[in-house]
Write a structure and sequence with these properties.
Layout: H1 7-17, H2 20-26, H3 39-44, E1 58-60, H4 68-84, E2 87-91, H5 97-112, H6 115-118, E3 130-133, E4 148-155, H7 169-193, H8 200-203, E5 210-217, E6 227-232, E7 238-243, E8 249-253, E9 256-259, E10 267-271, H9 273-278, E11 288-291, E12 298-305, E13 317-318, E14 336-337, H10 338-348, H11 356-359
Parallel strand pairs: 1-2
Antiparallel strand pairs: 2-10, 3-4, 4-5, 5-12, 6-11, 7-10, 7-12, 8-9, 8-11, 13-14
């Protein structure tokens, strides 16, 4: 039976439908198509029976602009989280709960609208500023993930408002503005956590680009056979994630998969490969994944701080920050541009997101 399975044809047929994973759920499938079966996931399960021994750091940003003592305390916590975890959650970040709730609702509205309207956005043309599809690496990955995504390139040159989906246009713009402001705060704190002046990473151009992805993970009839998002690291400098209360995001920490438990009003911050590169391995970009579930849909919004491949800032070269280097701490990586790094990451797909991705740029 296996020898007769024509994977390419099945991928193309699914893609041509332009209805995504949600289309399968709407058709009430009881078994997932073979293209979604992840044999690696079934083989690879690391022990995660005792999640309670670890929990992701939670950092309270309240008063950091007015209380110098509090700010120093927060910088120390950020440094610790970036060195040991590569992940932390922030609370009291200043973005109203209304905006967070409306952003999640907006992504739900996009994915649950009439499929004929949604199909107009379905493409694999990476030069488009607004697009929707199932998995950016759909044809490269050994197995597909159980999710659909809306991608919007929101900075430095946002799309014309008319090019954004009508059902979530206003909230996409409002949320992106809030994310650009929060990004500056996070980059200030991480600059100081590296022992640099607060504006260092902003001046380096790390906060210029914003790529927003709205993920929709429908309920899965066979969640043990697939993943919502395979084990990977992010290519950006930094990612800020808004998740609903369903859970499913996990971080690999000391060989344990640790749940990133939803906290109402919190946002998740994780470092990407480019941050690990410029920090010369002082701060870590770590593996994470999203489990498939038989409940849902789960909705999340990831904001990736990086310019996209075709933007003019994407050709700027980044290497280990000179102020962090010494005879005892020589550069580990060569210089690279976001354009080169993201193109390399996309050529490998999610499954290429092993340490070999950064290894490719080692001196």
């Amino acid at each position: 039976m296996e020898s007769k399975y024509d994977r390419e044809s099945e991928l193309k047929a699914f893609d041509d439908s332009k209805t995504g994973v949600k289309g399968l759920v709407d058709a009430a499938v009881s078994k997932i198509p073979q293209i979604f079966i992840d044999k690696q996931h079934q083989l690879d399960e690391k022990s995660d029976s005792d999640h309670s021994k670890f929990s992701i750091p939670v950092i309270d940003l309240n008063d950091i602009d007015h209380d110098a003592g509090k700010r120093q305390e927060v910088i120390h916590k950020v440094q610790n989280a970036c060195e040991k975890w590569g992940f932390f959650q922030v609370i009291n970040h200043g973005i109203p709960a209304r905006v967070l709730d409306e952003m999640l609702d907006g992504i739900r509205r996009f994915h649950e609208q009439d499929s004929e309207v949604k199909k107009k956005f379905y493409t694999r043309d990476e030069t488009r500023k607004v697009m929707y599809n199932t998995n950016f690496d759909f044809y490269k990955a050994p197995s597909a993930n159980w999710r659909d995504s809306l991608y919007c390139l929101m900075a430095p040159h946002p799309p014309h408002p008319d090019d954004l989906p009508a059902v979530c246009r206003n909230i996409l713009m409002e949320y992106s503005d809030e994310m650009m402001k929060l990004g500056l705060t996070i980059f200030e704190l991480t600059s100081e956590a590296l022992g640099l002046k607060p504006c260092y990473l902003k001046d380096l151009g790390c906060a210029e680009g914003l790529y927003l992805i709205g993920h929709y993970y429908p309920p899965c009839p066979e969640p043990e056979l697939t993943l919502g998002l395979s084990k990977h690291t992010d290519s950006a400098f930094l990612t800020v994630v808004l998740q609903d209360q369903l859970g499913g995001l996990q971080v690999l920490h000391e060989d344990y998969w640790v749940d990133v438990s939803p906290i109402p009003g919190a946002l998740i911050v994780n470092l990407g490969d480019m941050f690990q590169l410029i920090s010369n391995d002082k701060f870590k970009s770590v593996y994470h994944r999203v489990l498939a579930k038989n409940t849902g849909p789960r909705i999340s919004v990831g904001c990736f701080y990086r310019t996209h491949m075709q933007e003019e800032g994407a050709s700027r070269l980044y290497g280990p920050i000179k102020e962090l280097l010494s005879e005892e701490n020589p550069p580990i990586y060569r210089e690279t541009s976001l354009r080169e790094y993201v193109a390399f990451a996309y050529s490998k797909g999610i499954y290429g997101s092993t340490r070999t991705r950064l290894d490719h740029f080692k001196l």
